[in-house]
Amino acid sequence: MTLTPTPGTDAPEPDAPTWPAEFAERYRAAGHWRGETFGSVLAERAAAHPDRIAVVDPAPERRTWTYRELEERSARLAAGFAARGISKGDRVVLQLPNVGEFVEVAFALFRLGALPVYALPAHRETEIAYFCSFTEAVAYVIPDRHAGFDHRDLASKVKADTPTLRHVFVVGDPGEHTPLSDVPREADGLPEGPAPDDLAFLQLSGGTTGVPKLIPRTHDDYIYSLRGSDEICGVDADTRYLVVLPAAHNFPMSSPGWLGTLYAGGTVVLCPRPDAATAFPLVAAERVTMTGMVPPLALLWTQAAEDTEHDLSSLRLVLVGGAKYSEAAARRLEPALGCRLMQVFGMAEGLVNYTRLDDDDETVVTTQGLPISPDDEIRVVDDADQEVPDGAYGHLLTRGPYTIRGYWRAPEHNARSFTSDGFYRTGDIVRRTPTGHLVVEGRAKDQINRGGEKIAPEEIENIILSHPSVHDVSLVGVADEYLGERSLAYVILREGAEPLKAPAVRRLVRERGVAAYKVPDLVEFVDAFPQTGIGKVSKKGLRSDAAPGPAAPLQH
Fold first, then answer.
1. What is the pLDDT of residues 151-197, one digit of tens each?
2. Domain 448-545 maps to which CATH number in 3.40.50.150, 3.40.30.10, 3.30.300.30, 3.20.20.70?
3. What value does the CA radius of gyration of the chain take, rounded to a whole number of Å?
């Protein structure tokens, strides 16, 4: 693991805190950490069943890669990356939609020990510039265009401002950059790969203060979460998993996701768009058995299934997570789709809970499940960190064999987000049932969960505050039947300032180059904000004042 000097000392500080030795020994002794790496896993699967289909990429025309082909492609791409100076520990920002090259690039970087930094297709200049600068990325992998946006122009701007960024690799027409198809070379003499306890990649965390924090995951800890997820969900070589959410998200990657499916030797089917009109024909044609989605999408699929002519009978299991799934909506899914529902509640930082295949129906629709591991430690505590009894709501704290011990290069934040004995403060409010299942009430933090996409209010508030007519602003999440939450910006104008209308506020945010899902769904102008007893703005009061309105569209 890369070390950086601690200011004022000669001792190096790790980029990210890791598990103390006694915990690492315990997890290895329990068989959780087995000394596997993603590169070794793919090589073993390719050797065991080389001709089995690993990946189906249906758009724009159907492509399939066997396990042998995926192994060979990723090895050749790894050799090409190495020839261009990308080596173990280097960071590479990966921003691709659901295409086969996403999987190929990820495994090529895993093989080298270089770290993918997973960016979402919706991210724009603000986020990408930060990821490249903060991680000192040496390369950036993009599509030429996606969803009407030209990523090459963005890459040119970011590359000009990021001294470490030496390469931009493009899937499609490269423009002034390098086509990804030109990179692969013979895989002879590949350098030694990573160790199982080395970092495998950096994920993005939803935050409340701006651009995401980076979550460091090791090969050993993440592969354990895949193996546990596979066992709970019944994933095996016959599983055909449809990736309908962006492949860079933790949920469709590991719960059990495309990585869990490949670990089990199954088939991953990539879906270019999540809507039923795109996905249902793929379910029928590819005989998809499993998929995972956020509640707004599950609601759309449930509604669309009533009138579909497509054969969905191959579907065995649908996992719903990423945000709280209402009981009423949960009760409608199984009858509509003709398959089993499994609720998932987890976080990219680690802990994942599932309802179980043998849970009774009431448990499935009213809880968010049990942890993966017997060594997942759960605390539900009050504001003073004192444990509350089962059935009472409290703050969820956790530690375990696949929950990180700290964010990447964020010591000050780590001091707030982790207890002295290594428990992660999730920011979720939950209660625990007598059976140990967790029921999620909501978030203790101000973070807005818009259909599974996380919005940090402070980031958007600062943008709106830059307008000369704005005196103050507060962004809150308000209940939405479709998205779970949508964003509402309350704006106070300066006295005597030029008039400002809601479209102008939304345009200001959009033009700042942030992801589209961060643009406020609603804007209201008010004279003052409600306050707490100590004079702070009461976001709880603002949320309660917000009247429910029509459902907002899901942005991708």
1. 999 999 999 999 999 999 999 999 999 999 999 999 988 999 999 99
2. 3.30.300.30
3. 23
